Amino acid sequence: MGPTTPQLAHARVEDEVQPFGFDEATSSLKVLDQRLLPGSVHYTTLTDSDGVAEAIVSMKVRGAPAIGLVAAYGLAMLAARETSDRQVFAGVMGIAAKALIATRPTAVNLSRSVMHMVQEAMSVADREPQARAAHLLMAAKRLHADDLAANRRLGTFGARFLTGNRRLLTHCHTGALACGGWGTAIGILRTLGGEGRLAHVYANETRPYLQGARLTAWELQTLGLPVTLLTDAMGPALMASGDIDGVVVGADRISPRGDVANKIGTYALAIAARYHNLPFIVAASTATMDHAWGPETRIVIEERSSDEAALIRGERLAPEGVAYRHPAFDITPASLVTAIITENGVWHPHA
Ligand code: MRU
Q1: Is 179 in the pocket of ligand 1 (CB under 6 A)?
Q2: pLDDT of the chain, 351 residues: tens digit per residue
């Protein structure tokens, strides 16, 4: 078992590695290329919303809250474009918004943030480009600050809900790098760690893109939190042997009933947690709620390139030509969810 007293879980948010940041001097967005972690910390400079769309598609930046926020900055950069014609401006914003939303269709944070920015843009469409850009930059910064505040708050609610000293399993990556800071599921782990109540974290490596192995393990280790990496199929066996007290994951979209779309593999964990009578907890800000997700709605599950499953860092694992599927997300029904923790508190979808 790892140490129970983390050294850095209280590290100030402003001291940790930033996933992205707007540079006002150059009107550009610096984005940490998460694909290169943990080997190298490299920032790419983006100057327009097309560049932002490419960074989202290629997963330089990923995680539902983070992609919503960089898209907002992308639209703020676009608003500086030299046109004083309201119609032309509306057209340009509409095209960019559509392109951004199409990049990753499952995370509702992205479309919510883009639609919010379009609304803000239309409210200042008659102003000079500079004034428009300043207004949209403020709007993007507000979204960014709100996400960070929501994560800090939900971390406190989650830690309060998880009484005692906990050994928790998590999936994918939900830390500061996936958000505007702090993290959602990892935010709860950090809060528990700060209170000296995080006995251990088991992090699934998260096939096929390995967000757990590359990012969760790195972020938790950097924070001084006790982490052990597992391959995705190991969790149920550790539940059976009594090594795990519960599962905490993030979300890309949550229905009004409490169904949860999240990284592929989440559903299997929820089934295993139910079988072993363990709490299955979802952490997300209310920006991840999709009020339009009705009982008959089929939300879009992003299918990514099979190369991400067949190759690791360019190296082929399976025979050339063999078929692979790569649905990037799955849906966990509300009936398997013990609690959803948001900045507003703890919601029991079943109660
Ligand atoms: O494909 P990714 O890496 O963007 O998937 C990320 C997840 O599934 C996270 O759990 C979710 O976006 C929440 S991040 C706070």
Answers
A1: yes
A2: 333 333 445 556 656 788 999 999 999 999 999 999 999 999 999 999 999 999 999 999 999 999 999 999 999 999 987 777 889 999 999 999 999 999 999 999 999 999 999 999 999 999 998 999 999 999 999 999 999 999 999 999 999 999 999 999 999 999 999 999 999 999 999 999 999 999 999 999 999 999 999 999 999 999 999 999 999 999 999 999 999 999 999 999 999 999 999 999 999 999 999 999 999 999 999 999 999 999 999 999 999 999 999 998 889 989 999 999 999 999 999 999 999 999 999 999 986
Token digits for 97? 């918004």
Confirm or reject: Cβ of 16 under 6 Å from ligand 1.
Answer: no
Mutate which of 211, 285, 303 for ligand 1 pocket (most atoms within 8 A of beta carbon): 211
6-149: CATH number: 1.20.120.420
∠ at Cα 211 (302, 335), nearest 5°?
60
C-alpha dist (Å) from residue 48 to 53, 58, 78, 90: 9, 16, 6, 16
CATH 3.40.50.10470 fits 155-347, yes or no: yes
Distance CA 52, CA 330 (A): 25
Q: In the chain, what are the domain boundaries? A: 6-149, 155-347
Helix (H/G/I), strand (E/B), else coil: 3: coil
216: which DSSP letter? I
Q: Which residue spans within the chain are E strands per DSSP? A: 20-23, 28-32, 43-46, 166-170, 198-204, 227-230, 246-249, 253-254, 260-263, 280-283, 311-312, 315-316, 329-332, 339-342, 345-347
The alpha carbon of 252 and the centre of ligand 1 are apart by a number of angstroms equal to 6
Distance of CA 239 to the CA centre of its chain: 25
* Residues linked to residue 169 through DSSP beta bridges, in sequence order: 202, 247
- C-beta of residue 51 within 8 angstroms of C-beta of residue 66: no
